[in-house]
Write a structure and sequence with these properties.
Elements lengths: L5 E3 L6 E3 L1 H10 L3 H4 L3 E5 L4 E6 L7 E5 L10 H9 L3 E5 L16 H15 L7 E6 L1 H12 L3 E7 L10 H16 L4 E3 L6 H4 L6 H5 L7 E3 H8 L13 E7 L7 H10 L5 E5 L6 H4 L1 H16 L1
Parallel strand pairs: 5-6, 5-7, 7-8, 8-11, 11-12
Antiparallel strand pairs: 1-2, 3-4, 4-6, 9-10
Helix pairs in contact: 3-12, 4-5, 6-9
Length: about 300
């Protein structure tokens, strides 16, 4: 389950990698000591892959939702460190991502919420603590969507939060409109994310940049149907306040989404959000500084769950 050789049929599209390739990536990200602690399980008739870092039966439950194109194993150090701080932490691979089954990159927001609710159903058979959700990058939108629909979620943390009601600029709005219109006709057509995100620049200073860029489990080409679901989703937090606590962690040097955007949407939302700035932090905080991010994450959830 944790490693493979040759052709791997963990999703509808086969993923080709070797033990050597997988181990080299884990070495560069220093994941081995953390992966030794994880417990793997599946929900949704085995379709959704989850990785649990257990602390204690009565500790709070934290769901972690990865960023676009990625999967939870890559965040093992962050998840393990947060778990050590007193939480039962569970990373979830969306359908079609990482080790989960499904067409590569293909999901809808409503389906993700249903899958996450099944994850919570499973976890609450084992653990009695309150529930929080941490969504990184596009995972922030999914975390808020779950909290809006499930009263079990008492606290949300977003590693940036993109809301389609408030586009960062006109070009984003134009691109979202094009994606929505194109997806109505060609939902399976794939858009190369490298055309809109400069991965070389985002990973330029990371020692594992080559291994990450060449990871066959990463998704660089997304079905238009997935992107249309994300970029037309209307968040309830724009319209009303809920019972859960919420915050946005945002680096002051984030060059994917500026911190000014978070400041703007916090003013526009009906639901109150706290802004947690990270001085000189970029967009790739989970890999750039997992120690700092784990500390901030644990502190937020201690205040709002414990």
């Amino acid at each position: 389950m944790n490693s493979a050789f040759g052709w791997i049929n963990t999703s509808t599209d086969e993923v080709k990698e070797s033990n050597e390739q997988r181990e080299r990536l884990r070495d560069k990200l220093a994941l081995h000591q953390w992966l030794a602690r994880r417990e793997v399980f599946q929900v949704g008739d085995g379709a959704v892959h989850c990785e649990l870092y257990e602390h204690a039966p009565d500790s709070p439950i934290l769901l972690f939702l990865p960023g676009l194109g990625t999967y939870c194993e890559l965040y093992a150090e962050l998840l393990g460190r947060v778990s050590e701080a007193g939480f039962n932490v569970v990373g979830v691979d969306m359908r079609g991502h990482g080790y989960s089954k499904g067409e590569r990159g293909d999901y809808r927001v409503e389906q993700v919420v249903e899958d996450l609710q099944q994850v919570l159903d499973y976890l609450q058979q084992r653990f009695s603590g309150p529930v929080g959700v941490y969504g990184y990058s596009i995972g922030g939108l999914l975390a808020a969507a779950l909290a809006e629909r499930d009263e079990r979620v008492k606290s949300v943390l977003c590693g940036t939060l993109l809301l389609t009601e408030e586009a960062p600029d006109f070009l984003h709005q134009l691109g979202w409109s094009w994606t929505w219109g194109s997806a109505m006709l060609f939902p399976s057509w794939k858009l190369p994310l490298k055309s809109v995100l400069d991965y070389d620049r985002l990973l330029a200073s990371h020692p594992a940049r080559e291994e990450i860029k060449n990871d066959p489990r990463l998704i660089y080409d997304y079905p238009l149907g997935t992107l249309a679901s994300l970029f037309t989703y209307r968040s309830g937090v724009m319209q009303q306040a809920y019972d859960f606590k919420a915050a946005i962690i945002h680096g002051t040097r984030d060059d994917v989404l500026s911190i000014a955007y978070s400041q703007r949407i916090i003013k526009a939302m009906k639901h109150p959000f706290t802004l947690l700035p990270v001085e000189d932090g970029g967009h790739m905080l989970p890999w750039d500084d997992p120690v700092l991010l784990a500390g901030m994450t644990a502190e937020w959830f201690r205040k709002t769950l414990v």
